[in-house]
Input
Amino acid sequence: NAGVTQTPKFQVLKTGQSMTLQCAQDMNHNSMYWYRQDPGMGLRLIYYSASEGTTDKGEVPNGYNVSRLNKREFSLRLESAAPSQTSVYFCASSEQGAYNSPLHFGNGTRLTVT
Amino acid sequence: QKEVEQDPGPLSVPEGAIVSLNCTYSNSAFQYFMWYRQYSRKGPELLMYTYSSGNKEDGRFTAQVDKSSKYISLFIRDSQPSDSATYLCAMNIQGGADGLTFGKGTHLIIQP
Output
């Protein structure tokens, strides 16, 4: 059982380049989330999708876009990368909303923007 | 306001000791409380999950929630070197679909 799979594991971008982070879950979960984790800042929610066909902004959405492609997949796009977006990005899923079912995380994408 | 405070550590204790990890919060609407463990270069994994006030025990781990004080704790008994990790508290409100509010994590080191 793979759980939550994120690709790529590592990425280096130059300022202004674009890229898409991929996330897929095989647990038939309804809700999916994108977080970023920075030293001293903890985990911060970028975007979430409560159910297939819906997406909403989290705490730090600027500079990002998301697509809930289907129930399994939730992608995060950086249109024009900036050094401030250097971070570790985690995708997570939950059976229902995060308030009453735990989040299951992938192992992250480590992104460096130079 | 969704603010959760957690001492980043590092907290270093000898093997076999009882470990106490804590978080305080300001939003009295929080009702769901969780502890996640994160090993280096891995994603967080759920360790304990509690609803409202009270205690919950699972093996060597005990989670406590004191809503009157807005204070939650995780106790680890008979600590092992394999418990060395970062521990994140997380919480959410009733009906809160927009993910969890996390503490910044406490880095725990168990010395053999």
